[in-house]
Amino acid sequence: MTTTESHRMVEVYRKRAKRYDLTSNRLYLIGQRTMAYEHLALEQLALRPGDTVVDAGCGTGHNLPLLAEAVGPTGRVIGVDLTDAMLEQAEDRVRRAGLSRVSLVQADLTAYEYPENVRGIIACFSLTLISEYAKIIERGYEALVPGGRWVVLDYRLPRWWPDRLIPALGPMIAPFGGDTSMVNRHPWEPVEQGAARHRMLTRYGGWVYVSVGEAPGA
């Protein structure tokens, strides 16, 4: 991530951290079912007890208890985020849930050093905000064990949306630190390109997708 981009994201999410979960829930008012999409994405990891999984862009840590449940007491969950204030919220969530096998790391995902034997990596609504998303996905594949899974849950512009209406999306994207240039970012493409096997699931009229790639070598 460029220095300018990372600084901007940190500032945006420091301001939003304490209210992030509450404000994100407003998306339900326009028919989005974010929790259902996240559960769908988590299921695609196919985690087993004892696995190591990384939540790339974990935010306030909403997925961490679910991931911890999936890998059990012998597994390992690592939440990575760029913003200290978001990780503070995640740390509170981890502490309240008593999750001893969850660790949190403040890092730029483009430079994050993965641990060994990673079975799954998931990124929920985070990669489209980062211009170097392809680098993040490539580095993730290098860390995954053969047959491990890269799962990306994010937004994309559906084919039926007219180009002339793209500017209308600006006010919806801006509060999350993005702009309409994000419609040209396609994280599902490097997920597919790096995978031995790939599948794509879509929801919400094509606005939401789950891209699932299995690491080669299994």
What's the structural blueprint in terms of helices and strands?
Layout: H1 3-16, H2 20-24, H3 34-44, E1 52-56, H4 64-71, E2 76-81, H5 84-97, E3 102-106, E4 118-124, H6 133-143, E5 144-155, H7 170-173, H8 188-193, E6 197-203, E7 208-214
Parallel strand pairs: 1-2, 1-4, 2-3, 4-5
Antiparallel strand pairs: 5-7, 6-7
How would you characterize the overall build of this protein?
With 218 residues, the protein is an alpha/beta fold. It is built from eight helices and seven strands. The protein has helices at 3-16, 20-24, 34-44, 64-71, 84-97, 133-143, 170-173, 188-193, and strands at 52-56, 76-81, 102-106, 118-124, 144-155, 197-203, 208-214. The protein has a seven-stranded mixed beta sheet. β1 (52-56), α4 (64-71) and β2 form a beta-alpha-beta unit. The protein is globular. GO terms for molecular function: methyltransferase activity. Residues 53-148 form the Methyltransferase domain. Keywords: Methyltransferase, Transferase.
